[in-house]
Write a structure and sequence with these properties.
mainly alpha
């Protein structure tokens, strides 16, 4: 006998329909995002080692600093755009697939921000150089943004979210908005 419960459970278990369902869309989107992250992360190697670009070779630490800083900000923007974009395409499998990739984008943002900090550490001359420059407002804003992103990355796993409880976890992860403002200030002030 065909009951609604059986049909709903088998459709959900397979996650499919004729077009492949949301699971296939999420998997395809994840493959594209991973390829994008790997390409962006590996791109600095090309001008430094393969093409021997004089602009990049003049100061490789500054080149890496700017590259990773730009992409950290870009991944943060992509992470913040996921929810509004998913609301716009709320009908269909892409809305669900987009929301599933938000954590990945956020962690990619943190990875690039950490690489940006490491590049700055090299550029400034280690801890001694960093200690001399940390009082500059845009450096302080960048360090505070990195601290916020670190906290968000640490509390990103499902286990931690469950331990914190949904309400506290959501409240904590709303800190991404002040972090985004710090990043904007950091980027605008650093370019002056």
């Amino acid at each position: 006998m065909d009951t609604g419960r059986e049909v709903a459970s088998t459709g959900a278990a397979e996650g499919a329909g004729p077009a492949g369902g949301p699971l296939r869309a999420a998997g395809g989107l994840r493959v594209l995002l991973v390829a994008w992250v790997v390409l962006v992360a590996a791109w600095p190697v090309m001008p430094l080692l393969v093409f021997a670009d004089p602009g990049a070779l003049a100061d490789p630490a500054e080149y890496l600093l700017r590259h990773y800083g730009f992409w950290a900000a870009a991944f943060l923007a992509a992470t913040l755009v996921v929810s509004p974009l998913a609301v716009l395409v709320r009908r269909g499998r892409w809305s669900w697939a987009l929301r599933r990739q938000r954590r990945f984008l956020g962690l990619a943002c943190f990875g690039f921000a950490a690489a940006h900090f490491a590049s700055y550490w090299l550029y400034a001359g280690g801890w001694a150089g960093l200690a001399l420059e940390w009082a500059k407002p845009f450096i302080l804003a960048g360090l505070l943004a990195l601290a916020g992103l670190t906290l968000l990355a640490i509390t990103s796993p499902k286990r931690v979210a469950k331990w914190l409880g949904g309400r506290r976890w959501r409240r904590l992860h709303r800190a991404v908005y002040p972090v985004a403002l710090l990043v904007v200030y950091h980027q605008v002030s650093a370019d002056k």
